[in-house]
Amino acid sequence: MSRVAGVIRMQLKDWIWIALPWIVLLSAFFVNLILFATIDTEEENYTGALASIFIILFTNGIMTINQQFSFALGFSVRRKDYFWGTTAVVLILSALYAAALTVLTLVERASGGWGARLHFFRVHSLSDGSAAEWGWIMFVAFLNMFFAGFVFSCWKRRFGLKALFALLVVLALVLIVVSVLGTYYEGWDNLYRLLKPLSVGKLFTWLIIPPAINAFISYLLLRRTTA
Amino acid sequence: MDDSRPIFLQIAEKIENDIIEGVLPEESQVPSTNQFAAFYQINPATAAKGVNELVDQGILYKKRGIGMFVKEGSRSVLIEKRKALFYDQYVLSMLREAQKLGITNAEVADMIRKGENG
Amino acid sequence: MSAVIEVNHLRKSYGQVKAIDDVSFQIEADKIYGMLGRNGAGKTTLMHILTAQGFATSGDLKVFGEHPYENEKVLRNICFIKESQKYPDTFSVKNVLDVSADFFPKWDRDFANSLIADFQLPLKRNVKKLSRGMLSSLGIVVGLASRAPLTIFDEPYLGLDAVARSLFYDRLLEDYSEHPRTIILSTHLIDEVSRLLEHVIVIDSGKVILDEETDTIRGRAYAVAGAASKVEDFLRGKQVIHREPFGGLLTAAVIGAGDGRDRHEAEGMGLEIQPVSLQQLVVHLSKINQVQGKEGERA
């Protein structure tokens, strides 16, 4: 068996990829459904609980370095194979989950919010376009969440905890400087004017860049990481 | 197994003892290297070295594809060898100890006779 | 004999600390090696580098003729059972075996199952919930059933009782006889495994201080004991590796076979010749190495 396929099989043996996110999401869904079905209300009910599955992808990005990376390296797996196997798992699952959530959103819409005016899967102004666009937005969001967690975890693993704090401080400073400068030079207005004509779907197409960069940096960091 | 002496020598000695005591009669098959290794929990290469030591001395010989066998006449060869060793290891050091304690050779001989009867 | 591992002038330092200090040695194919030395001598660091899980500061390293770093051809032939191996929190014993089957090309499932039965490992139990001994047993099962051409065990029997250790030696020898491969046992407990080893490499303070066939080392030194003045007379002109005075008595370890002329000479002087075990010998040599190391620093 190819080593990448081995890593994919190894990852999927862990419940954090499939069981955990759906248990959390679906239990939140049913609690909300029962809640809003029993209290008879005329209002439209939004929950925001959909975010939980995205947050789990973020924490998985952090955890897999400590859990599966050390394990795999100890079992004679190349860093490269770990990276590509894990990336494959994330790409495949993100696509499947985005598709599944899109279907659930459509059902929700057709059933009038599950007969209880519950808008669990709908997100205001993001999910109002076509089904394909909504699916694409969620797919890109999954990748952003996972690789954000992944790159920080790789950095910590490579350089240690102090270096992680240092990185966070530097990033915070950069953010402050950029926002101050942006306000000073009226950059925010220009940015808004630039982005305004874009649809959310197009906007998220641009957002494929950050996870790609994070993935690339993660790979470079892993190349020099020890068990 | 005694960890302070080469183990291959100890294996060779064990086989020698078995031949002298008749446990391994002449023309009988000697256990395989792997059997020695498993029984004494020792490295098979070390066991093989012990067996080969006796092949070199002409005590054992190899039948191709079957294994190692005890050569005819090897028992008496071994007994002669052990007799020489016996004189060197036991008799000489006994006489040295006797000298230290002021026991004459005649007295030692008496003691040996006493040991025979007792 | 082809070399499975070739190490030349390998160094690894953490700042000022030299964990591996100019180490060179070869490991030949299909032998059982012992990597011996005290805790913290540098064994584990060295093995991490050999398996490309750690990096050397300088020096050459070849495993199966190539550098192991990110080298699939080399790595798939290595199984390194680490004392500190981490397992994913949710993994059961069975999960670990399934993963092993995917990563070790020569994995023998039937052999693994028979070992699981021998060591009485609960297949469904979470690895996190295994005792130290069971964790060691799991490592032994993976290491043996992997049949990897280069199998390395680092302190494989922590927490194992005498029965389980003996079982490990039995299974190791049986399977090695049928499927010869290169095996490295790294340990600080020398006496018990020394019989299994064809060759030993002793590491101390990051240096190789002994690299020899085990049987050659056995009987390489002997101890002589008696009245201190007489022992000192006897020691003149001999290579002494250890002195242990006790009242007016002295026991000294000397390089040599301790037979023939030496034995006669000692007995003639009323001194007693005693054996020196491999463990004792390694301890003596380590001490000499440390003394020399300190003198080297001063110089």
Automatic annotation (TrEMBL), chain A:
Keyword tags: Membrane, Transmembrane, Transmembrane helix
Q: Where are the transmembrane segments?
A: 15-39, 82-107, 134-152, 164-184, 204-222
Domain of life here?
A: Bacteria
Which protein are we looking at?
Answer: Uncharacterized protein
This protein's species is Cohnella lubricantis
UniProtKB/TrEMBL annotation, chain C:
Q: Which GO terms describe its molecular function?
A: ATP binding; ATP hydrolysis activity
ABC transporter domain: from which residue to which, for each copy?
5-230
Taxonomically, the superkingdom here is Bacteria
Any single Pfam family the record assigns to this protein? ABC_tran
Q: Which keywords label this protein?
A: ATP-binding, Nucleotide-binding
Protein's recorded name: ABC transporter ATP-binding protein
Q: Which organism is it from?
A: Cohnella lubricantis
The upper taxonomy is: Bacteria, Bacillati, Bacillota, Bacilli, Bacillales
